Structures are given as C-alpha cells and as structure tokens.
Description:
This protein is about 45% helix and about 15% strand.
Amino acid sequence: MTPVREATQPVVTAWSDIGCPWASLALNTLRATAAERGQDLLIDHRAFPLELFNRQPTPKHIVDAEIVMLGAHRPELGWRLWNAPLWEYPSSILPALEAVQAAKAPEAGGLRGSDQLDAGLRRAFYTEHRCISVHSVILDIAEECPDVDAGALEKALSQGAGRREVYEQWHEARGPHIQGSPHFFAPGGYTAHNPGATYVFTGDLYDGGFPRLDHYDAGWATTLLDSLTG
C-alpha cells in the first residue's frame, strides 16, 4: 500500500472507526508521542466503518466496556462513560467518517485539517459526549480546528463529499491487508493492527463477555515515528 503524501513529508496511513475505542487509544498514543518528540506528524485517515461491516450500529454496551477497560488503564485519556441524555448518543458514525474524508480537500483543510477534525470528533465523543452524528455538531467541531475551513467543509458536505470515499474504503478494507480498526501503515513497510495491545475476550461480547487488556506497550508509536525519519 502506497501512503498518500502531502508535499514531501512521509505520511502515516491509519484505518479506523471513530467509534472504536481501540483506534482512539492508538491515535492518542501516536499523536502524544509525536508531540513529546517535537516531531511533525501527518496522518491520512481511512475509514474502517464498523457499522457497515457489522450491518448494525456498534452496540453501546460493547463500547462502554472498552471505554471502562481502556480508560482505567490509561486515565490520561480523560474518557468517561456517556452521561449526556441517551437520546443524544450517536446512532451512526458514518457522518463523522465522511466529514474526515471531506476535510482532506485542500480548500477544506488537507491532511492536517482532516487529522485535527478526526481528533476533535473523538474528543467530542469520548470526553465531551456530543452527538457526532449531527451535521451541526460536526461543523461546530470543525470550527474548533485551526486548519479546517468550516465553511468550505460545510459546502463540500452539502454536495455529498466524503460518502463515496467511505464506501470505497469500506470495500478496500474487506481485503486481506487491512485487519481491523485500527491498522497503521507507514513508509518503509511498517504495518501493525491494534499495536501495543495484548488482550483477550472473556466470552462473546454480545452475550455477557468482556474485553480484558493484559498489557499496553506504547513503545510501538516510537518505532513507527522512527521509521518516518529513516
């Protein structure tokens, strides 16, 4: 897989679902590690839309179990169980995924703006409990991103931008090279699915089972970032 390039800077390709806590942990780890190193980071986000794969919204009880497990292990994330009204809980993540794709257009923000929007949408869902299914909420979050032109994004979304890309990426993600959310690719052959996490499921998550994180090694982010500097 050839990563997208913006200018001449190496780009990390990240396949994920915004509603996937594992992916949100991994992206937080990667961004935080890059910031600690003072290393500029560009991410090309690709959609791994779980609700299209599973033919249903991702069940809230599964997301809740993963939020408790990962949030307890990494309290710096600041995650909380949903405490807004239940009727505000997002019924679909597709509008948010589409907005991240639409934001890649140069006039809307490019890869940098798209990554800022992705981070803002995850923060809004996991810590601020805002309904990221709603068009106006997405645009409010876009207004908070310094490199996103919210007006250009609104115009693009009104014309259906991002939807085709999400569906094309869904079809591509069915192939053998992309194993799930998250999966990272970087120049030089780096590839990792759900990096750093050693975990098991104690049973069927749809029938009373729970995820169990046995260990999380954040060093994977250093390895990936080192691969970008060659």
